[in-house]
Amino acid sequence: MNAPPLRLPGEHFIAALVFLLAGAFGVYRVAPALATGAYPAPVVVGITHLFTLGWLTTSIMGALYQFLPVALGESIASERAAHVTFALYVSGVVLLVTGMYRAHNILLMVGATTLGVAILIFLVNLGITLRRAERRDLTWWAICAALVFLGVTFVLGTALGVNLRTGFMGGVRQLALGTHLHVALFGWVLLVIIGVSHRLLPMFLLSHGGRTHFASYAVALLATGAGMLVVFHHLPIIGREVPALCLAAGLVAYLMQAREFYRRRHRPALDPGLRLAAMALGLLAVAIPLGALAVSGVASLHVRVAYVMVALMACTLFVAAHYYKIVPFLVWNRHFGPLAGTRTLPRVGDLYSPRIATVAVASLTLGAVVLAASVGAGSLAGVRVGAAVFALGVLVEAVQMTAIARRRP
Amino acid sequence: MVSPLVDSFPLALQVVDPALIVEADVREDLRAGREPFQRIMAARAELPDGGTLVVRAIFEPAPLYRVLGKQGFLHHTEELAADDWRVWFYADVVVLDVRDMDPPEPLAHTLAALESLPQHGTLVQVNVRVPQFLLPRLTERGFTYEIREIAPDRVHVVIRRAADAAVTTSLNQEGHDHV
User: How far apart are CA B126 and CA A328, in angstroms?
Assistant: First the structure.
């Protein structure tokens, strides 16, 4: 195993946390637009991308650089390219989000181009790594499919950006937007989450010996649903209801897999990270009926925006939960691991205060729930309260992660 | 081939390599009134380093416990029927079951246990996955390891001091050369 030094995932995690902080405070700022359901407003689009590109994708990139060599026994093809990707990617996100937020076309174009180059290098780097890997299990397939959908998401996003200037999409803009959103969340983020958590959840939960086939169904269904959306999104039934059913079924299969892991855990008590992951999974379950309402066409604009918010918040919380597991582990392994066996060392759980982490978990969960419910109800006060509570949770987690990163023997 | 992978067996027996098991079924000899000791000792002589001897007899072969115990073997006895006994004679190794430990506790406990591993001793870590973060640390600290993926949720990592492993390899090589 040749996992990269802590610096590579570390720089991604720091940038991702900064993006999450900016996004959390940004939600408070755009509360009026969210409360009226004005999702196409540039400020809302900008803040949304702080979560999707800034928080989720940056975290995923950093985590994959660390995770893939361990999970697949294959080193990242080029660490140097990974650092270059990081620099381009972070610059791209900053420029793109600023361009979106301020509706500034030049920033938008420069940001999209920089981001495109970064994503391209990332895809090539990981593509080579995956091609070299001998172990081709569920994790391998899930990540391969996810990388394809990341590329598709970027192409669709770029097309939507160009449409802002040219309007070439005409009436199909909504379809393209819906496809972009679902491919991003279900095809990219969720497939990575399934592939990675298939290894990490049983490890962190001390859950072994359970059934694991639900995850295979989840990957197949989500990949099929997202793929159908990409190819047939302009057609009725085959481009709307059928992919929606596949995505919903894939989500259910994943939730069943996660439930199996949680049910079979050998230690009943859950630490803050695993409690937050469970909350995130619960939120993901709520997205299913909301999505059904959105597809059926009976949902109001507010409910449709709430559906997107629930799905986005579920992914956000799930990744935030794993920071409480991954960051202490990496710091311990880097700074305390070399001394293992030679003297008494703190346990990973001793690197942070579980009580303070519980405050973060409660704030993040409560904030996300209040936020989504208030968006659904169109309540400005509720959106503001939810956003404030959520931002508090993010702030506490960011402070704790910083403190963990500074821990030394 | 008999399998030592039975939950009720002692851990040190569960981790023996099935490929290193030599069986001596002396039930027919005993029923025919023949003395089985020479056959059992011949099987013992065939045992490779770290191997396990399985004796099958029509009564509990208690005298063997002392004889083989003096040679460093532990034993585990199964009464399969009133006239069918199976006894496992296996090497004494340190076994660390880390399956219910939070990462990176397995790494910390294993490295701590290795600090007190006797010369020529073997430590077997029982894990649910290959402990990727432990392996480079073992090499750094002068240990060699062998990974045995027993089942989807069971991995045995057999750890020895690099110096001991080199001696064993050399002796085995000499043995082969003599043959």
Answer: 24
